[in-house]
Amino acid sequence: MNILRFVEEFPDEQSCIIHFKTCREKEGVFCEKCNSSNHYWLQNKLQWECKSCKFRTTLRCGTIMHGSNLKFRIWYLAMAFMSFSKKGISAKELQRQLSYKRYDTIWLLMHKIRGAMGKRDDLYSLKDMIEFDEGYFEKATSERVKLKRGRGSQPQKNVAVMAESIPLTNENGNNYRHPGYFKMKVLTSHLKSEINQVVQDNFDQASIVFSDKSTSYVNISNFVEAHLTQKSDKSTTKETLKWVHIAISNAKRTLLGVYHKIKGKYLQAYLDEFCYKLNRRYFGERLFDRLTLAVAKIYR
């Protein structure tokens, strides 16, 4: 969907409500009281009423929109601008485009949408051949704080970066690896226990993992079918861990170009948005439709 189609399909609040109702029903509406899926729709109340126990469920209940007083069309416009722009849009620019008075409201709105992106991607596990490494992202700090130098210094945040690497053969019979899904998870430490938890949460057990010989990765083989390591050098970066390092460089360039400085506690939200778009890089105009489903879904 492009901006012209968006204006045609969602000209007012009512059109957004009807579309969001359809998205909710695609995901399934279940009664919080008796877990029944049979409901009546109360048009004047914008609620579903359970046929069994008469318990009512609001249109926003349980979704990312839960508790929000913003109009549906504001949400839809925000999702449109965030999905139409390849590299993203800042909260200040979105505030200007929506002619909205309060910056904080728009900033929180965007972070809720990013939260939906991250939760949607968390539903999937990486599988087959997986590249695994860590990247260091600069974070905003106070100018008064005295900073250390070098790797792992104070203004940097450590991020685990994972990429599916799908083996294929081209027309000439040459083998190559094509990138599949990507994930990025902010780490609080370099401890192997945290790395192990990331692997358990995000990898399929039948996967083959490629990484360098970091001491933090020594137990990865306990959670996957095989773990192949290679000494970190230029060859490893360009061949074995090719897609991981391309993703790291692209993410850094994107975040720096749009947001300039990001506080460490919000870095995961921005990485969720980057990975969500990267994983759906071939969706084209369907990206907006997928995002509305992600926002409408109830994550348990």
Compact summary:
The chain has 300 residues and is of the alpha/beta class.
Describe the protein's topology:
Elements (H helix, E strand, L loop, with lengths): L2 H7 L3 H15 L11 E4 L4 E4 L5 E3 L13 H13 L6 H8 L4 H20 L6 E10 L17 E14 L5 E12 L5 H11 L5 E4 L14 E4 L4 H7 L1 H18 L7 H13 L7 H10 L4
Helix pairs in contact: 3-5, 3-10, 4-5, 5-9, 7-8
What does this structure look like?
The protein is of the alpha/beta class and 300 residues long. The protein has 2 domains: 3-120 and 285-296, no CATH class; 129-262, Nucleotidyltransferase, domain 5. Helix content is 41%, strand content 18%. It has helices at residues 3-9, 13-27, 72-84, 91-98, 103-122, 192-202, 234-240, 242-259, 267-279, 287-296, and strands at 39-42, 47-50, 56-58, 129-138, 156-169, 175-186, 208-211, 226-229. It has a 5-stranded mixed beta sheet, with helices on both faces. It has a 3-stranded antiparallel beta sheet with strand order 1-2-3, with no helix packed on it. Helix 3 (72-84) packs across helix 5 (103-122) and helix 7 (234-240) packs across helix 8 (242-259). The longest helix is centred in the middle third of the chain and has 20 residues, at 103-122.
